């Protein structure tokens, strides 16, 4: 995710006890039992997606696996959502009426994050390959077992309603959710619950720390020439891209301190002896609200035009992705928090804690005390949100009442977007964290299906508080299409080797067993000679 894995926005100090305060009863107890009965299924889904190790826009094995599974469970699948080959929705309806509840989670990995899970030091499975260095392999495991537990209860009790499961495609590129919104995926949805991996079990409401952003690529066009024999006959597109980069650095001092911006030259030409006729520079521009993002984009456009004039080239731009700031629903978050307190953190055993501490020590984590044993306190959002990372769940949160449930499937203090964040993601730590999150998810869906006042209050809060003074402003260009070519070459290069490591649950009880990894493996790694 484009933010720290362990950030729990709107949450204060560690305070609430880890043990359950109000054990669930009635319908909630039934769905909790349904989640527990599917512990094996959640482990298999979690481990399977980890083994695919797919990155943004290339989540094809993930799409095929999840849609086939949900189709067998009676869900109706719609594919190629919003022009995304890995975009889909799975819908199941009980009865003629009832609320429509959507459950979402991201599915993409991180470049160069291949890591053997269960090994507390750097040990790639496939050198240079992508991997789940944030833990996005786990969220759909949580969503699906929660939905299936709720589905069984709905059938037994004849509770009307619709469950919709959907994926966060290419979240690391901010490539999917705004396009889902534009395609109308949420037009009939009453409430959305999003799940994201963390090291805590938590939720929040309001505006957390973080930014909205736009991902934009500028393409400079020039004229090729022999770089030694006749360079004066060429017009270097690379010079245009570099001039824009230099111009942005000059302007950066005079932008608001809240902004964050980063860029790469994604195409610098073909070879040194040919004046580049085409070059591309790719920016992430982050700011705190819609107006500030638009102003920042206009500034970038101005600098691009100036760079083109300086270098006698032409320039065009393309929006590759976007993310609105996040804006979460208070009544839904309060309902979820009550369920979080009822479920509590997993009961970590000595092996879990020893492994977590070994990882923390080996990677120089900011936390060295192992896994949390107390829930984070639930509190109001910051009065003045600070600049931080972005997540395109923001676009959904401005469209329909939305919350995020964070679940404790990873280890505190890790760097994020890094191979280290993949270490725990098929271990008992992840499996227990997914189960805890799924219980909270299922219980919160029951609340939304059985408490009309809760849903009505969530909609009133969304209408009269969340969007009273600011409406959603789509940042995508009207005619843009998703950049589904991104990561295609990279995935094609590594997939044959990665496929040798796909999880086979028919032969192995867990992915660690398949890889021959002993649990827990401790220590600092094999000795190296100098």
Summarize the structure.
This protein has 530 residues and is α/β, with parallel strands linked by helices. It folds into two domains: 26-207 and 325-515, 3-Layer(aba) Sandwich (Aminopeptidase), CATH 3.40.630.10; 212-323, Alpha-Beta Plaits (2-Layer Sandwich), CATH 3.30.70. It contains 14 helices and twelve strands.
Question: Mind explaining what this structure looks like?
Answer:
The protein has 530 residues and is α/β, with parallel strands linked by helices. It folds into 2 domains: 26-207 and 325-515, Aminopeptidase (3-Layer(aba) Sandwich), CATH 3.40.630; 212-323, Alpha-Beta Plaits, CATH 3.30.70. It has 14 helices and 12 strands. The strands form 3 sheets. A 6-stranded mixed β-sheet has the order 2-3-5-4-6-12. Helix 2 packs across helix 11 and helix 8 crosses helix 12. The chain is globular. The protein starts with 10 loop residues before the first strand and ends in a 15-residue tail after the last helix. The model is unreliable at 1-20 (pLDDT under 50).
């Amino acid at each position: 995710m484009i933010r720290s894995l362990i950030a729990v926005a709107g949450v204060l100090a560690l305070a609430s006890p880890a043990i359950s305060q109000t054990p669930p009863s009635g319908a909630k107890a039934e769905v909790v039992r349904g989640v527990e009965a599917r512990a094996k299924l959640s482990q298999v889904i979690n481990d399977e997606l980890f083994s695919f190790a797919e990155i943004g826009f290339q989540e094809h094995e993930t799409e095929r696996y999840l849609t086939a599974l949900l189709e067998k469970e009676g869900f109706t699948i719609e594919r190629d959502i919003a022009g995304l080959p890995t975009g889909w929705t799975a819908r199941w309806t009980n009865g003629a009426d009832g609320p429509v509840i959507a459950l979402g989670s991201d599915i993409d990995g991180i470049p160069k994050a291949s890591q053997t899970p269960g090994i507390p030091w750097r040990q790639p499975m496939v050198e240079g390959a992508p991997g789940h260095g944030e833990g996005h392999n786990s969220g759909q495991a949580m969503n699906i077992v929660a939905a299936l537990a709720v589905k069984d209860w709905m059938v037994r009790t004849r509770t009307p309603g619709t469950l919709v499961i959907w994926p966060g495609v290419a979240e690391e590129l901010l490539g999917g959710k705004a396009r889902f919104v534009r395609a109308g995926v949420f037009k009939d949805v009453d409430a959305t619950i999003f799940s994201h991996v963390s090291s805590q079990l938590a939720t929040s409401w309001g505006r957390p720390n973080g930014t909205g952003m736009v991902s934009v690529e500028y393409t400079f066009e020039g004229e090729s020439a022999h770089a030694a024999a006749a360079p004066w006959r060429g017009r270097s597109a690379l010079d245009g891209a570099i001039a824009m980069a230099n111009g942005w650095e000059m302007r950066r001092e005079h932008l608001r301190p809240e902004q964050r911006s980063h860029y790469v030259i994604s195409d610098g030409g073909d070879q040194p002896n040919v004046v580049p006729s085409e070059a591309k520079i790719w920016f992430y521009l982050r700011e705190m609200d819609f107006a500030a993002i638009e102003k920042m984009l206009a500034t970038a456009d101005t600098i691009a035009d100036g760079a083109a004039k300086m270098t006698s080239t032409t320039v065009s731009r393309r929006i590759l992705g976007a993310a609105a700031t996040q804006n979460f629903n208070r009544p839904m978050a309060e309902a979820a928090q009550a369920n979080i307190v009822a479920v509590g953190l997993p009961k970590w055993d000595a092996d879990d804690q020893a492994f977590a501490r070994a990882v923390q020590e080996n990677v120089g984590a900011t936390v060295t005390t192992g896994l949390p044993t107390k829930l984070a306190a639930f509190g109001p959002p910051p009065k003045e949100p600070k600049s931080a990372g972005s997540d395109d769940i923001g676009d959904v949160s401005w469209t329909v009442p939305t919350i995020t449930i964070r679940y404790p499937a990873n280890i505190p203090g890790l760097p994020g977007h890094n191979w280290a964040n993949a270490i725990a993601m098929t271990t008992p730590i992840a499996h227990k964290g997914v189960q805890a999150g799924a219980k909270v998810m299922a219980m919160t869906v029951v609340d939304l299906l059985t408490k009309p006042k809760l849903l009505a209050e969530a909609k009133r809060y969304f209408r009269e508080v969340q969007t009273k003074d600011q409406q959603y402003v789509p940042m995508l260009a009207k005619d843009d299409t998703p950049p589904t070519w991104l990561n295609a070459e990279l995935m094609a290069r590594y997939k044959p080797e990665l496929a040798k490591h796909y999880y086979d649950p028919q032969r192995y009880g867990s992915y660690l067993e398949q890889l021959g990894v002993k649990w827990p493996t401790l220590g600092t790694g094999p000795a190296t000679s100098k």
